Amino acid sequence: xxxxxxxxxxxxxxxxxxxxxxxxxxxxxxxxxxxxxxxxxxxxxxxxxxxxxxxxxxxxxxxxxxxxxxxxxxxxxxxxxxxxxxxxxxxxxxxxxxxxxxxxxxxxxxxxxxxxxxxxxxxxxxxxxxxxxxxxxxxxxxxxxxxxxxxxxxxxxxxxxxxxxxxxxxxxxxxxxxxxxxxxxxxxxxxxxxxxxxxxxxxxxxxxxxxxxxxxxxxxxxxxxxxxxxxxxxxxxxxxxxxxxxxxxxxxxxxxxxxxxxxxxxxxxxxxxxxxxxxxxxxxxxxxxxxxxxxxxxxxxxxxxxxxxxxxxxxxxxxxxxxxxxxxxxxxxxxxxxxxxxxxxxxxxxxxxxxxxxxxxxxxxxxxxxxxxxxxxxxxxxxxxxxxxxxxxxxxxxxxxxxxxxxxxxxxxxxxxxxxxxxxxxxxxxxxxxxxxxxxxxxxxxxxxxxxxxxxxxxxxxxxxxxxxxxxxxxxxxxxxxxxxxxxxxxxxxxxxxxxxxxxxxxx
Length: 508
Known about the structure:
By secondary structure, the protein is α/β, with parallel strands linked by helices. Among the domains are: 2-9 and 19-118 and 195-326, no CATH class; 397-507, STAS domain (Transcription Regulator spoIIAA, 2-Layer Sandwich). Helix content is 60%, strand content 6%. The strands form two sheets. The protein has a five-stranded mixed β-sheet with strand order 3-4-5-6-7, with helices on one face. Strands 1-2 form a two-stranded antiparallel ribbon. Strand 6, helix 21 (477-482) and strand 7 form a beta-alpha-beta unit. Helix 2 packs antiparallel against helix 3, helix 7 (150-173) runs antiparallel to helix 8 (179-193) and helix 10 runs parallel beside helix 12 (287-295). It is globular, with a radius of gyration of 25 Å.
């Protein structure tokens, strides 16, 4: 039963999922250790979170192929709680964080992530790419905080370039095995054979340990405890969900598929609740690891499950070998992730898109780098909402074109169609006075939510009642999927039809 769930979405991709899972597990180790150290907890607390959150979300989540684990965005929030009250309060906060995320999913609030404007999403991606890049620079410093130089810098730079070259060029020769995995193994062998003096995973911390054990957090079950952990739990839950659901959207874009935000919210909540009882620091989706997985061929639930399983095996059985992996090799992997994640087209779009959109995207990226993801996204959404309200202050309207020869009338809709203007949308049309064939063109419009879908269905019913034929043009694939009465009236043009998400429970 379990393995049928794991492999449900990728029955024919077992080899790629397995190898990509191994690749992800190798890259996860230093990150989990680093984030645990940031939160000022034992490295095993980060590693336990990485494999538990990863395995649970891979089975229960709404986005096959997405990788979850301990993240830096959560770690920076946790550190204050750990310093002031201790790690047991952290475990309690993580459990409550999970319960809040489960509640979020049960109330089907995940659909609202589809309303995050594209400039905000673009800023989020670029901001995280810069955060990942800046995080790697810390590996170029000694334990005392000084920048490395001379031979140490040459060795590290050489291993980084070797890793990046293999990842980039190997797919041009063969795709039988993930290039990232080959790069990690090759770089490690080179460092060991030539006895290179470079920092390894083991220099960060030992990853050897036992299986995590179930334990109720050792905290007083009082209102005072709740007052202490509740603010942290709310912030952690929000950051975790925002990062997870935006990563879900990113993986959707990369794989041209549709994830389920509500299901993912539930899975993240269950994973964090379980992790808190087993001594983990909690987690959420990881952009960098998810991209490594996708680029390595991982598409199904098996990839995330395998990543978690390998991570556990590293802790229990193979720690001495994993600790020999050079940090430089993993830095090279993350540099490739940065290059692949950053939307370089943003520079070309600056002069082509409205100034307000460019400003929003840049602002989100900058805020992500200097503060945290949750604040960046919230500020970006608020800015976009203000821009949207300003741009759409005028009601939706239509240009009416009547072809007397063919007796066809066309309504060219202008403006976004959403819950606030559905009534005005209906008033644009006169079914009784229109000819037998009527076209409604949405090329200059966008259908935003379920209310808009219902408005189109209602319009189709109005024309059907008077015996007229309605034709709908330039609607997205999601719109057609959600329509009921009007579904058969949509004229599909793959080359011209737009692609955008609709905020609806059916797709969430």
